Amino acid sequence: MTETRSTQPESTAYDVVVLGAGPVGENVADRTRAAGLATAVVESELVGGECSYWACMPSKALLRPVIARADARRLPGLSGAVQGPLDADAVLARRNRFTSDWKDGGQVQWLEGTGADLYRGHGRITGPRTVAVTGADGGRRVLTARHAVAVCTGSRARLPDLPGLAEVKPWTSREATAAQSVPGRLVVVGGGVVAAEMASAWQALGARVTVLVRGGSLLNRMEPFAGEMVAEALTEAGADLRTGTSAKSVSRENGVVRVVTDHGDRIEADEILFATGRAPRTDDIGLETIGLEPGSWLSVDDTLRVTDHDWLYGVGDVNHRALLTHQGKYQARVAGAAIVARAAGTSVRAEEWGAHAATADHAAVPQVVFTDPEAAAVGLSLAEAEQAGYRVRAVDVDLSSVSGAGLYGDGYKGRARMVVDLEDEILRGLTLVGPGVGELIHSATIAVTAQVPIGRLWHAVPSYPTISEVWLRLLEAYRDV
């Protein structure tokens, strides 16, 4: 669609206007178009969004060779063939292919195939049900929505308030996943998923990595043993991991980054990555025109409708419920169905587990951290369950006791914990750490989401000899307590 200059902005009416063409916006558009609603999608960057070009896909493309080599090294008969360094150029080239070299033609073709109209440019809400789009050429279009505007603009990296940081040109998650060469020395500031994954990837690709973690451990939103095991593996791989440490000041002189920590330590590096949280991309989308705070997270109900705005939806990262692509797409399916139902004047099932309620975002959010070992979790940790007031018991199993784990690789190290609600005898959460456990988490997600009784789980027989036999070991441990 070509935009032209005019003194009066051209106006076009739609049923639904979607701000953001990442996976979340694409899915909202797909659902509303499938129901016959006229839908426009506005995107200021690449169609496909953060996940496709600077997050999920490129990061996992970088990490897959790291994990595959680690798995191979655990197998006699194969370990000797993979002792050399990774071919960094080949890894980066493969990563580039997964991002389509940061070109979005394929994604555009898919989106337009749904029947949605794509507008390239910056979209700003200018009032109820109205969005103005400014194109790269300065041309302006006004889009009106008969039924809904869906804000699906995602989140961006949040940088700390350090003097002179902008002049240092630090990496964020975008630069860390898109870099075209391996830095000799890399400082990673942060202890969450991005920090753990990118430290693992660049250490394996040849960088000397130093990780500064303000808290006492990595991955502090998971069970404590998850961060401990990932930290141990990172240290064994050669990374310098410093907990209880923050960057007090940073500077760059003659290309060299100099970091001073709050303990007075001085570190030199070629690049520095700040993985210190996310902020919503809502600062310049016109929220002030409808009484909302620019740059704020959007408060939504379980149909993803923004509080006190019956035409506005906040879907994906912008509502801060679960900053994960798969959960954003889940929300998009729910929001799309709710928009369609309201447009048709039919009933909206917003009760718990209803067709138009994003209930799983409260009870059963799964996540996989693609380090070596992998860490995977769904639902509540023990501490979270206790804080929520449930009477629970933690059941722990050493994964090395599972036959399938030993076959997976010699010296297999791993651990599993299920959190059992003693009142209802259902699972409130499950955490797994170990090679290959990411492929197990969906079975746990089903058990937690469906609230499968422990007595029924006994009849879900795991295949032998696979790592999934951990389910049997966990149930036995619960019975024997």
Automatic annotation (TrEMBL):
Binds 1 FAD per subunit. One of its GO terms (biological process) is 2-oxoglutarate metabolic process. It comes from the Bacteria. Residues 14-326 form the FAD/NAD(P)-binding domain. The keyword Flavoprotein applies. Its cofactor is FAD. Disulfide bonds join C51-C56. Keywords: FAD, Flavoprotein, NAD, Nucleotide-binding. FAD binds at K60, G123, T153, G154, S155, D317. It holds the Pfam family Pyr_redox_dim. Residues 365-471 form the Pyridine nucleotide-disulphide oxidoreductase dimerisation domain. InterPro entries: Class-I_Pyr_Nuc-Dis_Oxidored, FAD/NAD-bd_sf, FAD/NAD-binding_dom, FAD/NAD-linked_Rdtase_dimer_sf, Pyr_nuc-diS_OxRdtase, Pyr_nucl-diS_OxRdtase_dimer. The keyword NADP does not apply. NAD(+) binds at G190, G191, G192, V193, V194, A195, A196, E197, G277. GO terms for molecular function: dihydrolipoyl dehydrogenase (NADH) activity; flavin adenine dinucleotide binding. PANTHER family: DIHYDROLIPOYL DEHYDROGENASE, MITOCHONDRIAL, DISULFIDE OXIDOREDUCTASE. Belongs to the class-I pyridine nucleotide-disulfide oxidoreductase family. This is Pyridine nucleotide-disulfide oxidoreductase. It comes from Streptomyces toyocaensis.
